[in-house]
Request: fold
Amino acid sequence: MRDRMRNLRSLLAEKKTDAILLTSPLSIHYYTSFHGFALEEREGFALITKEKSYLLTSKLYEGAVNAIPDTTSQIYSSDSPFASLLKQLLIKHSVLSLGVEANNLTLSEFMSFKKLAKIIPLQIRTLRIKKTSEEIAAIQKACTIADIAFETIVPKIKAGITEKQVASSLENKIRNQGATISFRPIVAFGKNAAIPHHLTSDQKLMSNDLILIDFGAKVDGYCSDMTRTFFIGKSTEEQKKAYETVAISQDAAVTFLKQALKKNTKIRASDIDMISRTYIELKGYSTIPHSLGHGIGLEVHEPPYLGPGSIDQLEDGMIFSIEPGIYLEGKFGIRIEDLFTIQNGRLTQLTTASKLKLT
Amino acid sequence: MRDRMRNLRSLLAEKKTDAILLTSPLSIHYYTSFHGFALEEREGFALITKEKSYLLTSKLYEGAVNAIPDTTSQIYSSDSPFASLLKQLLIKHSVLSLGVEANNLTLSEFMSFKKLAKIIPLQIRTLRIKKTSEEIAAIQKACTIADIAFETIVPKIKAGITEKQVASSLENKIRNQGATISFRPIVAFGKNAAIPHHLTSDQKLMSNDLILIDFGAKVDGYCSDMTRTFFIGKSTEEQKKAYETVAISQDAAVTFLKQALKKNTKIRASDIDMISRTYIELKGYSTIPHSLGHGIGLEVHEPPYLGPGSIDQLEDGMIFSIEPGIYLEGKFGIRIEDLFTIQNGRLTQLTTASKLKLT
Reply:
């Protein structure tokens, strides 16, 4: 927590900003350890000045925020509204320029706060790009829980079951292990799998159908993410060829990455994307209609981004997905997604649920 | 859907605004019926001009948005980014002033879009304040599912169970009925109940302990919300007196509301708050540390607000909670919450799970 705060304050110094107002519940969790605010509503704020950290919230959370170490609580109410409290603190700490989370602060808030200080829009999500061993452990645990959930439900998938029923069993298996889901599972049968973000429906599984499942678990706020595509019954030659292409394109990216790590060269995330993407195109398929992968942590999608336009480099401490796909509209879709981390210059795969064996 | 769109366009006309860019997934759901975008990320937009409705998203959702009636899809990509697509549409429809959701648009988006048109900050959540019969039916269904979940789990609550276990059983009972939860259930034992928004913990239930449960179900995107407080074993005289005070303060608000409806007078939401609040204060307790109630719909908390500073009036078609509470720090807390709707000038209670009977 102290390292994180030091990094945040270095950014403030670099940007010549006197303080930052954290509005995203995930940022507040990351920098103060308090994770009680709901994600959907604005239930509180954190103000980080050069010297002090404040948690500002309503009486509803007074007890909870008082228990958080290294922070001072400030309780707002109709008699003492948030804007007045903030104003007092800005004056107390001589804050003339106030950093904000540009991707989270709303226009209403901006219009209100710009009367109090010069507002400096900041991007702070990249400060979370390298994970500590505790963060990696939480994500590894989420991956293992998802692996177990997957292995448990697959034998129960039979013709006649609906996408929603499969999604619901997966959720239950994740919850039974004390975790939550990191996003609504995508379960797509047959031609529904050709839609990368298909909305899980009441579609029933037919015999000789293809199944795509994209889902994740969440442990202590940290997310996992994994996709598997498989068949009940027989797959066609066309399906086998597409599956093999996706599998090899993923392997190609992984192999390239391992070699680059051995050589200790800089690894551009866009290069990894290109390796997989080019292989799929060379085999005569349309390009992947999404990025090859994304970082993961408190959010399912966060830096680094593995896409054609990415400026990120892949380095020690990062965790990211590699998930090539082929989507044939009206026919079927294939995607294989695993999470990887770089630790001490070595690549480790975090998701291990079994994959289709092509014979 | 057409009535909703007409109301939105009337607001645009009234505010002399040529179009509105919807950014909140809930607004997009409400006005276009498309509910595929995740709540946590910006996966798409809707642009509503005087003549047309557009859904703008990436290739991931192309198939899904193409299936939505009365809207035109526009797919953005790295070659054809969102800002360029938006610019073209604004030019095509001669949009000089662009309305935005001031409580949802981020500062980054504002900085980017203000180059394209004059940005008009709008508040559109109040347009959802009156519910249609379909919306009321969905909320009623969510309430009934929550009622059943509650009645099923209560007999299983015994000394030794943890708050998290109770929350988990509730969630399972809701999911087994095909619904989801509208928010993380609050389960608080004994003195934890004195914290209005206690974070459900591993605290174990003792014999003769008090239990507060605040939770809801979600059906087709529509939320329910209910709180019950009860005891296993014996309650103390102090607890009984506080419970009775909360119950009567809720009844007082309901009775006042019913009489006002009979008289067909205007009903100020702040008056309803005052009735309950004053009763609790008169009995010698501290005032309720939160509002008496809130509207509910696609969001758990939305207009109308039943609080001291509210300017809302309660009218036909609205659905709201009435939830007085007494919180005695270090001792215990009591809250009773039910949802009500006004239909054809009559008040109906939507939540019916059983309550403590004081003898």
